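Margin note from the TA: students keep mixing up input and output lines. Inputs are the sequences; the output is the structure of the whole complex. Example:
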Amino acid sequence: MKVARAVALAFLLAIGSVSLLANLLAPATYAEQFRELPNAPPSSRHLLGTDDLGRDRFSRLLYGTRVSLLLAPVAALSSTILAALIGGVAGYLGGRIETAAMWITDLFLSLPWLFLLVAVRALLPLNVSPQVSVIITFGMLGVLGWAGAARVVCASSRSARDSDFALLARASGVKPARLFARHILPNLTPALLAQFWISIPVFILAEANLGVLGLGVAEPLPSWGSLLRELENYAAIGRQPWLFVPLLLLVAVVTCFQLVLPKAELPA
Amino acid sequence: MNREQLMSEALLSISLSAEYAKKSVLRKLTFQIERGEILGLVGQSGCGKSTLALAILRLLHLKGGRAVGMIQLNGLDLMSVSERQMRGIRGKEIGLVLQSPLSSLNPVLRIGTQMAEAWQAHRRGGRQECRNALLESLANVSLPAEEEFLRRYPAQLSVGQAQRVLIAMAVLHRPALLIADEPTSALDVITQADVLGLFRNLSRKMGVAILYITHDLLSVSTIADRIAVMHHGEIVECSEPQAIFTDPQHAYTRNLIAALPSVPGLPTIKELYSTAVKSHATGRG
């Protein structure tokens, strides 16, 4: 298991750094069209061939990986911060506030996640620039993805609140707000770290789902979601197996995140 | 109230009832502690000893309890002061030491950080001033007064060291009263003896009065000026240790003494006390 974790971590780091260097490593930009060569099979010039607009798939995969792999953690960070505030404060205060917060959390959790994303995305402006679509997509994930984490954090916060050391801090005259910030919050770190790490693959998949539906990152900007749309073309899949490469990469990355996870669950 | 009356008044004067969800735990429990005195409060598990400790600090609601009655500290009725005022008293006028040293320390914070929090709750001052105060308080409880020690995490301490850290925190602001709730029951006998000695020294050195709550009649007798025996939420007997052992008034006290371990062939505690009353009294000066 230790080896698997190390390999997974190395793989994620490698993919992450390659995608960060996309503009150096990619043979073309993500939008450049080789109009004389649409739908080309893999060659030494186009490692994964070109799509029907003549764009180099390998370059688009690199840029798309960068979008998904960088912004999913950002979204995970914002949803984890929301979870820390909502769950942490609710568990710390307890009573009616905790009941109300957990009621809202349950409501969020009982809504089908993909349906919620699609509905909210449909409410927001659809005809926006690619850059804005990226912000909307991952912002939405960050704002809507806190519920599961909030419940876990709420439980840790409650147990820290009821602990002897919190009692002793109160008996030392520490103010409630400071008690939360200096004594309770540090105890939530392991739970928050685990939730952050769990959220990343969930958000990567959610973005891919939205992308397949055309509700994710807008063209011409690539993301894993929009790259997977090419798999909609059933007829082409059999003849062009290299179309599966983005999917394989997605599965590999999400799997690696899961493999690395147990490490993050250990208390800091 | 003139100055003389104030001086003659007890440090802490209590008459308290407490309940958890209609279940009565303390029944008009009444006692007083003089300045600098060590009062041992003895009773069996579940008789409401810890409830009392929390009630004095007005923290009983955290455990779902409710207290009514009178708690006077230096003539100030703690039941009627505002929460804000009460916060100024917790840790500053009244220190608390709990039973389990390791769970009383925040596992993810360094010793120095937790102690600094307790210091900053009542003092405003620079980093250096805070450091000096912490190192001095470590020295007070015979712990290494070193920066390295302050950088440790609770898991890096022995149980005895952890309890000393907690005692150092409790007397950081030189409170008038220290409440120790079963402070030695998690310790082995040798560490226990050390910690008991530490309480006595602190009491002498700082003049802090100690309410020493325990189920262990024997160990508290070694340091207490008076012993109050608690049974069913009431104080059934309160007098000096030798009187408790040689002439117990209440049936429950007699049960407590009868339950003390005795070694075959050696004199019982009661016999020892009877012969040692005089030397004990002079020994305490």
